[in-house]
Amino acid sequence: MIILPLKINNLSYKIDNTFILKNINILIKEKNITIIAGNNGSGKSTFLKALHGLIDVPYDKITWNNIQLSKIKKYQSMVFQTPLLLNRSVLENLKYVASKRNIYNLEYVINILKKLNIEQISDINAKYISGGEKQKVAIAMAIIGNPKIIFLDEPTSQLDPAYKNDIENIIKNLSISGVKIFMTSHDISQIKRIGSEIVFMDSGKIIYHNSVKKFIGENHKNFIKNYITFG
Amino acid sequence: MLNNILETAINLIITLNKDLFEIISLSLLVTLTALIISVTISLPFGAFLVFYKNRVQSITILISNTLMGMPPVVLGLIIYTLVSKKGIFGFLDILYTPTIMIVAQTLLIIPIVTSLTYEEIYKKNKEYKLLLNSLNLTKYSKLKTLIYECRYALLTVALTGFGRASAEVGAVMIVGGNINHYTRVMTTSIAFETSKGSIELAVALGLILLLISLIITLLIKSLRRIS
User: Fold this and answer.
1) Of A79, A40, A83, which is closest to residue A186 (Cα–Cα)?
2) Which residue blocks in chain B are alpha helix, DSSP H?
3) In a domain, A1, yes or no
4) How many other β-carbons are positioned within 10 Å of the β-carbon of residue B218?
5) pLDDT of B211 above 80
6) Is residue A50 within 8 Å of A13, Cβ to Cβ?
7) Torsion over CA of A212, A213, A215 and A216, rounded to 10 degrees?
8) A54, A96, A97 member nearest B133 (Cβ)
């Protein structure tokens, strides 16, 4: 199934009369890593949630290859900033997600554990593993069932450099294997390392959309310039 | 004097006194049956309420929370008026039977299990809402997952219900009538034996009740630690 282009047509979202997303129009065609950047409160995470259908927006505002979001949802998965894992072993967490995707093959699940190099913690309760390991488990859960789109909400913001490197490599490999990645990030050096395309947001609006290369190379107004300098 | 009473009471327990164990058996039968029925109804109902945020849900929780603190003697009185000869359920002829005692205790536990289940599932749903929604699950599937994730907490809820039912005296006294060898349970027996001055049996039953309470407390403590 072809899922791109992603087309967003005048999307707005408000909570208690405050616009969190405002008049968003965008067309994303490339199957690469799209970074959603911006300062705190710019609407990045809400935008990601809207793309994944986690917040209610009118059905015709977001389409994937002219297909409605509700029909594409089964091809998507998401990794949250704080990994959400169930109170059971790592293996059981993966088996749970697999069962929800109608996969009952234990070997398949074990292969994913191996792929992410976390098979040594498979029997440990997910509550007791480190933050980096939790994020790896969350990514392992997200790739079960071979989704075509993965959303990552600042997946490395709480990790040390070693785990950050590990996770970035996993994300890059997923992109190489053909998965469309949308990832929010604050970290400008990370954006340079793994991002192909950038969507820059401010106060719920998209104020810049281009390749990361151009984003870094261009002469920006003060606001984005400061972000690039101090990010 | 206290020494003598305690000695006789412990002796009644050690020698497996027939009357004593008949009362304990009936108490456990009534309370456990009431617990099973109320958990079967209230646990899914309390969990179900989490997913239906509307006025009916708010009112149901409000009523359930209010009924949690209902004095058992008032509940007993209401049931009595309903099942006595002149009551609308008088034709059932179940007043002063173990059946109506089970009904009374079931009604006593239902609000407790409903409200506490709702609280537990509500908290867990808040924690896992994003994950469950991102997996695109049906409400039924979410409910199953949340109940499983709250399994230890829900066992604690059930034990709380058991503790409340096994310790109450008012409702079962009114609807059961405290008939010897038929509807006499631990709590009604303690009240009755004390009133007639037969302290030994009352103390023996009191010790058993305390032991049950201790076991429940220890179970709840260890379940909390696990969860």
Assistant:
1) A40
2) 2-14, 18-50, 55-68, 72-83, 98-134, 139-149, 151-167, 170-176, 186-195, 199-226
3) no
4) 10
5) yes
6) yes
7) 110
8) A54
Which CATH number belongs to the domain containing residue A153 in this structure? 3.40.50.300
Distance from CA of A227 to the nearest CA of B (A): 29
Decide if pLDDT at A180 tops 80. Answer: yes
- Domains of chain B by range and CATH? 2-226 (1.10.3720.10)
For residue range B129-162, what is the model confidence (pLDDT) as tens digits?
Answer: 999 999 989 999 999 999 999 998 998 899 899 9
| Number of compact structural domains in chain A | 1
Q: Is the peptide bond before A5 cis (omega within 30 degrees of 0)?
A: yes
Establish, for the pair of chains A and B, how many residue pairs have beta carbons separated by less than 8 Å. 28
B134 touches chain A (CB under 8 A): yes
Rounded to whole angstroms, the Cα distance separating B177 from B139 reads 45
Do residues A145 and A127 touch, judged by C-beta distance below 8 A? no
How many angstroms separate the Cα of B97 from the Cα of each of A9, A181, B104, B177? 69, 67, 11, 8
Q: Say what the ipTM of the complex is.
A: 0.87
| Partner-chain contact B128 A97, CB within 8 Å | no
Do B149 and A97 count as a contact with CB atoms less than 8 A apart? Answer: no
Asked if residue A46 is part of any domain, the answer here is: yes
Tens digit of pLDDT for each residue in A127-167? 999 998 999 999 999 999 999 999 999 998 878 888 889 88
Instruction: Report the alpha-carbon distance of residue A6 to residue A209 in Å, rounded.
Output: 14
Instruction: Compute the distance between CA of residue B121 and CA of residue B47 in angstroms, rounded to an integer.
Output: 6
pLDDT at B185: 94
Task: State pTM to two decimals.
Answer: 0.84
**Residues spanned by the domain of A105:** 6-230
Cα distance from N-terminal residue to C-terminal residue, chain B: 45
